[in-house]
């Protein structure tokens, strides 16, 4: 970075709009909502076996983003988020990886979440040390394209880790920073609420985003 670039960043404060937007949202209560039976080695083996079907992604605007989602990604890029610090392996979109992830999770766990099996979309994310997912909120665009005919008012998104908490692993939802979780601890990620994750440790981080129609009855 050149001094002139740093001076422009400090002068322009490109983060101001993003900070104002998220600071004005009502803080969301974040607590564990469930616990699943997880075998970490099974999930890690999957990432090796299906490596060629992983999407290799990093922070940048994407075609399915809404206006605000695109703006936040652009701001994140301006302040330094790039392939060198936001890289991830992302499983679940390509080939039959979503089906295989559902099989690994198992019907018992899916039922424990009160999820309708045919509406489940899972993403297994691998973040290497020094990388993380930048601050953002989810608009559910990908899920709506994959499941256009479901009742989207009943869609929820959960997050869980497939490994016990490790040094340097953290996940923030709203104003709450989560650490020291156990494998299979499940947390709700409301749509429209800011969140991010990071791995500033020394061990790869394996987490799952789980989206589905949830039967509240």
Morphology call: globular
- Tally of strands: 11
Give the fraction of residues assigned to helices.
Answer: 25-40%
Q: Span from first to last CA?
A: 55 Å
| Range of strand content | 25-35%
Output mean pLDDT.
93
Q: What strand line-up does the widest sheet have? A: 1-9-6-11-4-3-2
Number of domains: 1
* Count of separate DSSP helical elements: 7
By CATH, the topology is Jelly Rolls
CATH 2nd-level architecture: Sandwich
For this structure, what is the CATH class? Mainly Beta
- In terms of per-residue confidence, which ranges show pLDDT below 50 for 5 or more consecutive residues? none
Instruction: Say which CATH homologous superfamily is assigned.
Output: Jelly Rolls
Order of helices and strands: HHEHEHEHHEEHEEEEEE
Report the structural category. Answer: alpha+beta
- Please outline the major beta sheet: 7 strands, antiparallel
Rg on CA atoms, Å? 17 Å
Word description of this protein:
This protein is α+β, with helices and mostly antiparallel strands and 217 residues long. The chain has a single domain (32-213), classed as Jelly Rolls. Helix content is 28%, strand content 26%. The chain has 7 helices and 11 strands. Strands 1-9-6-11-4-3-2 form a 7-stranded antiparallel sheet, with helices on one face. It has a 4-stranded antiparallel sheet with strand order 5-10-7-8. A hairpin with a 2-residue loop joins strand 7 (169-173) and strand 8 (176-178). The protein starts with a helix and ends with a strand. The mean pLDDT is 93.
